[in-house]
Amino acid sequence: MSETESDGRAGPPVPTRAAVRDRLDRVTDPELDRSIVELEYVDAIEIDGDRVTVEFTLPTAWCSPAFAWMMAVDARDEVESLPGVEAARIVLDEHMHAEEINRGVNERLSFAESFPDADGDVAAVRADLDEKARVVRQYDAVEALLEAGFEPATIASLRPVDLERYGSEETDDRSEDVASDGDDTDRLAISVQEGAVVVTVPAAPIDRYLEKARETGVLEESTEPLFRTPDGEPIDPESFDLVHQRGRLAQVNMSSQGGICDGLREARERRFGSETGDPETADD
């Protein structure tokens, strides 16, 4: 969608609620590594020309101010990256530090300027949470490979260059060797036994892991080992089970925290009711 200016030239595209919501879907609760849209944190999206206001509420009023700050900043930056958006205003509701966070994020202050008494830098908190998310995403990716029949030693030796998007021209040439369950969409093909056999696996968990591994700087080259220890080192095949167990524990911890947050959010909704619009049904 775009506007037409008086001279007949196409103006900047007009942002829609659907487009804004798609950008917000990229923003995660850093503690849970889940989208704030999926978690139903977003209460309202208002669009006035090239200016967008997003209101959101966290499961509890006492969620970490550092976590709330990260979500507010990420939401602002994602919405402002949308063509046609000049400025995004972020409003965090019903949080014990809502005033400081809303003022700081919308006035482009730093976390330290908004919370001068805070102990530590929010960047360090974000880095630690990103590493935990990487470990959990690796666990999910490795589980998909184990389910497909890969041996631990093979998984430890995989590199990004070994992955091919299933359905590509190169993979089609070897289609008779591909072991597939019939679903050819969103899958990756991995060669084993020196290329004699190609096995396909679901792409989603591996793509999610790749995104976070690259984001955290653990994985930079396509020829480097794909999976790592929590410290970022290549996995010794003899330590595979221990590394995978640590990933499972991290996933259980994150899932448990997510369950607690879901329960708190539901309890809060029952207590206060919904006073805001539903962005999922908003008119675009």
Report on this model:
There is one protein chain. The chain is an alpha+beta fold. It has two domains: 17-120, GMP Synthetase, Chain A, domain 3 (2-Layer Sandwich); 123-166 and 186-248, no CATH class. 42% of the residues lie in helices and 17% in strands. It is built from nine helices and eleven strands. It has helices spanning 17-24, 65-80, 98-106, 111-114, 122-147, 152-157, 169-172, 203-215, 240-272, and strands at 2-4, 10-13, 28-29, 34-35, 42-48, 51-57, 87-93, 163-165, 178-179, 187-192, 197-202. Strand 1 (2-4) and strand 2 form a beta hairpin. Helix 2 packs parallel to helix 3, helix 5 packs antiparallel against helix 8 and helix 5 (122-147) packs across helix 9 (240-272). The longest helix is centred in the last third of the chain and has 33 residues, at 240-272. It starts with a strand and ends in a 12-residue tail after the last helix. The model is unreliable at 168-184 and 279-283 (pLDDT under 50). InterPro entries: FSCA_dom_sf, MIP18-like. It comes from Halopiger aswanensis. This is Metal-sulfur cluster biosynthetic enzyme. Pfam families: FeS_assembly_P. Residues 17-88 form the MIP18 family-like domain.
From the helix content, strand content and strand pairing, which structural class follows?
A: alpha+beta
Q: End-to-end distance, in Å?
A: 11 Å
Q: N-to-C SSE series?
A: EEHEEEEHEHHHHEHEEEHH
General shape: globular
Q: What is the makeup of the main sheet?
A: 4 strands, mixed
Query: What is the overall number of helices?
Result: 9
Helix content: 40-55%
Low-confidence stretches: 168-184, 279-283
Strand order of the largest sheet: 8-10-11-9
Mean pLDDT across residues: 86
- Radius of gyration over alpha carbons? 22 Å
Number of domain modules: 2
The strand count comes to 11
- In terms of DSSP E residues, the strand content is 15-25%
